[in-house]
């Protein structure tokens, strides 16, 4: 039950980023936006495969631990991630649930078994040029927001050139197109983010002897899809205000471009099997769009605050998970 709760803060954080732009430019009412992204967020993990889950499930090894210790590691990692997610949600900051989960698992594993039980992937990267384990995860988490900024910047420049001679009435069809953009973004979000919790639950089933090897059961997919959809339907209105109004003043074209840019990056990452943060990509795409049009109008102070929260999330979750593991092992003993 605790691991299923891990997907609820995803609903507070990430889908809030998806609906922020369409609400800010009045393409949809809040109720319409939440309903649309809830439906497609559910379809994402059901139809999107398990490549991201395979990546997350393979960057730690728990074979040398007892079943009790392994379960304690996974629970501690989940508690670390949930704690940081709820804290940033309460503060209204769009933090990264992905960073929180990865940091939580790392912290618990390092304390419980040591660094040898984390698949770092550095040797494969240096010797073979191949991204595996933690190196693959960190690379995608780092590169994705940079791509979001770059794709948003270039796309908005191109769209402004293409549409420069059109009448302002073009805003009406742009608002309609945002329904498609929001649906694609929600689908790509579900296909990427829900798989992280799938990985943790599947690891729990493996160490508990319920599964012979790491293969995500369909009922786990449905469970995580339902949990993240419930979180989506819950809103996340503090973060909607931050992303929709706190970074750059969004118009229909800005919102549509940010949806296309973010959905493209997140979909590509899911196909690659790399976990990314929807929060990072959506926020950075809005920054890129603002920088492409009027850099001085971007609220860089708020953007800096958001970026700071991104870098704090992973080490904070690591420390909370490590402390949680030490506390739980004392209680169990």
Q: Tally the helices.
A: 14
Radius of gyration: 20 Å
SS-based class: mainly alpha
Portion in strands: under 5%
Shape: elongated
Q: Could you name the ranges where pLDDT drops below 50 across 5 or more consecutive residues?
A: none
Terminal CA distance reads 23 Å
Relative helix content: over 70%
Mean of all residue-level pLDDT scores: 80
Strand segment count: 0
| Helix and strand pattern | HHHHHHHHHHHHHH
- Report the biggest beta sheet as strand number plus sense, adding barrel if it closes: none
Helices, strands, pairings?
Blueprint: H1 2-5, H2 7-24, H3 30-47, H4 51-57, H5 67-91, H6 97-112, H7 122-128, H8 133-163, H9 171-207, H10 218-233, H11 237-245, H12 252-272, H13 278-293, H14 300-332
Give an account of the 3D structure.
This protein has helices at 2-5, 7-24, 30-47, 51-57, 67-91, 97-112, 122-128, 133-163, 171-207, 218-233, 237-245, 252-272, 278-293, 300-332. The radius of gyration is 20 Å and the shape is elongated. With 333 residues, it is an all-alpha fold. Helix content is 77%, strand content 0%.
Name its key features.
333 residues, 77% helix, elongated
Summarize the structure.
The chain is built from 14 helices and no strands. The chain has 333 residues and is mainly α.
